[in-house]
Design brief:
With 268 residues, the protein is an alpha/beta fold. It has one domain: Rossmann fold (3-Layer(aba) Sandwich), CATH 3.40.50. Helices cover 41% and strands 14% of the residues. The chain has seven helices and seven strands, in the order βαβαβαβαβαβααβ. The chain has a seven-stranded parallel beta sheet with strand order 3-2-1-4-5-6-7, with helices on both faces. The protein is globular, with a radius of gyration of 19 Å. Bound molecules: nicotinamide-adenine-dinucleotide. The site of nicotinamide-adenine-dinucleotide has 28 residues, from α1.
Length: 268
């Protein structure tokens, strides 16, 4: 077991990726502290972890966008586990609107949850970890943290911010023996993206632009987080790891129909 005796906080733990991350960590022996916005979500997350045979799981209701709620949640976690080894900043929301149409309130909400939240949680975690010998923090960014995705100005800005924050925290927290890395998922089917998969145009684009389009599931993000959280990644600090089936590797000029200069000779 890679994480025997370790304790891990996962925010947004009842969501599609959050539950896969909690499963991957608890399957390797970690105690899970599941944090989410609503009591029913937290209960659902705890139940899912217990159903896998986990010995230890705790649930805490909190709002990552509120520094006060974050401080209270970490104080409560301290009473439950004493020592924290892993924080996964996974909670996130998305707003699909053109920059002409996005209101300042919608901008603020996405930035507060997706960028300020990871900072508030990382800070609380690092203060705690510093007192207990160190630990590791993994931020769930997005491919939208490495390139723009249209109609998501706040999401793209927040996720680029998470990538930068990851680098900064990796340097600031290193003296306290805390590693900080990020995972940048490509699009994967979860409650957040469920509607995409009902759209034939999206599925056609996915097939065209993602080399391994027919693979890819939430569990892939769980495995990437497990690797970065484990001793296997002991010398890895400050990186953002894309887990996207190769989507970022090339943004093709070819259309899906493509017989063009960019797809001539292709075998598919
Ligand atoms: N699904 C994808 O394709 C994809 C791709 C790239 C990045 N991501 C990122 O992965 C993370 C998880 O996404 P998902 O697809 O599992 O989404 P999801 O909607 O299934 O889950 C998000 C979870 O975050 C929780 N949450 C939202 N606001 C919160 C708040 N203020 N405080 C605490 N919890 C809150 C929700 O209750 C939910 O449980 C997000 O950061 C998202 O941006 C997802």
């Amino acid at each position: 077991m890679l994480l025997e005796g370790k304790a891990a906080i996962v925010t947004g733990c009842s969501g599609g990726l959050g539950s896969a991350i909690a499963a991957a960590l608890s399957d390797q022996g970690a105690t899970i502290i599941a944090m989410d916005l609503k009591v029913e979500k937290v209960e659902q997350a705890c139940e899912a972890v217990r159903a896998r045979g986990a010995r230890a799981v705790h649930g805490i209701v909190m709002d990552v966008a509120s520094p006060r709620s974050v401080a209270e949640a970490f104080a409560s976690a301290k009473q439950k586990v004493g020592k924290l080894d892993i924080l996964v900043n996974n909670a996130g929301v998305r707003e699909i609107k053109n920059a002409f149409d996005l209101s300042p309130e919608e901008w603020d909400r996405v930035i507060a949850i997706n960028l300020s939240g990871p900072f508030y949680c990382a800070r609380e975690a690092a203060l705690w970890m510093r007192d207990t010998g160190g630990g590791t923090i993994i931020n769930i960014a997005s491919v939208a943290g490495l390139t723009a995705i249209s109609h998501r100005p706040a999401y793209t800005a927040a996720k680029h911010g998470v990538v930068g924050l990851t680098k900064n925290l990796a340097r600031d927290f290193a003296p306290a023996n805390i590693r900080v890395n990020a995972v940048a998922p490509g699009v994967l089917r979860t409650p957040m993206t469920q509607d995409y998969y009902a759209d034939p145009e999206f599925l056609r684009g996915l097939k065209h632009s993602v080399p391994f389009h027919d693979r890819g599931e939430a569990a892939d993000i769980g495995r990437a987080v497990l690797f970065l959280a484990s001793p296997l990644a002991e010398f890895i600090n400050g990186v953002t790891l894309p887990v996207d089936g190769g989507w970022l590797a090339e943004k093709s000029y070819a259309s899906p129909e493509a017989s063009s200069f960019f797809s001539a000779g292709s075998s598919t």
